[in-house]
């Protein structure tokens, strides 16, 4: 694909924002209200590709989602690293919640963008480097939301952002303690 063709595709997506269907959202919401005790197990399978730190992640019947490391962390720089993928998942989950709640309120969504960034000390090098006492993993995450939504006041948009954060499954998984087990099988 040429650079010109790629730019045209991006410009097309910038002009058209296709929101989710409000009636289908309403039906899904009603299903959740009908039985709030339903818990669904979601799964992913990660396979080391054998090329440095490239990993293939299989979810449902989708093509593999690749996760890699940048050259500074001994990777091939072919895909986001695990922390970047986590930030992308976090931003996407918040964006989904923003869109769903804006649509449910009858507002017109023309654009949503979530900037995600976080601070991490990587000197332990996955447990092979400096093992002195320090936090492992992200210590601070910052999300900035840009909204192009018609029909809502600035105060309503602030409330929308707060509400989406309160109900975002990924944001709450990152923010709150969660039981995690790791075992060899």
From TrEMBL:
Pfam families attached to this UniProt entry: OsmC
Residues spanning the membrane: none
InterPro entries: KH_dom-like_a/b, OsmC/Ohr_fam, OsmC/Ohr_hydroprdx_reductase, OsmC/Ohrsf
Origin superkingdom: Bacteria
This protein's name: OsmC-like protein
Organism per entry: Methylorubrum thiocyanatum
């Amino acid at each position: 694909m040429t650079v010109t063709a790629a730019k045209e595709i991006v410009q097309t997506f910038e002009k058209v924002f296709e929101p989710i269907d409000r009636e289908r959202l309403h039906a899904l919401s009603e299903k959740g209200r009908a039985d709030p005790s339903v818990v669904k197990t979601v799964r992913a399978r990660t396979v080391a590709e054998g090329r440095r730190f490239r990993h293939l992640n299989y979810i449902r019947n989708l093509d593999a989602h690749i996760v890699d490391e940048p050259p500074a962390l001994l990777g091939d720089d072919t895909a986001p690293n695990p922390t970047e993928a986590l930030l992308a998942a976090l931003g996407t989950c918040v964006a989904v919640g923003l869109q769903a709640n804006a649509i449910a309120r009858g507002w017109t969504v023309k654009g949503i963008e979530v900037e995600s960034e976080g601070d991490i000390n990587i000197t332990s090098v996955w447990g092979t480097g400096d093992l002195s006492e320090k936090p492992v993993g992200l210590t601070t995450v910052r999300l900035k939301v840009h909204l192009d939504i018609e029909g809502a006041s600035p105060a309503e948009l602030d409330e929308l952002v707060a509400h989406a954060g309160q109900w975002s499954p990924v944001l709450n998984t990152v923010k709150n303690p969660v039981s995690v087990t790791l075992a060899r099988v």
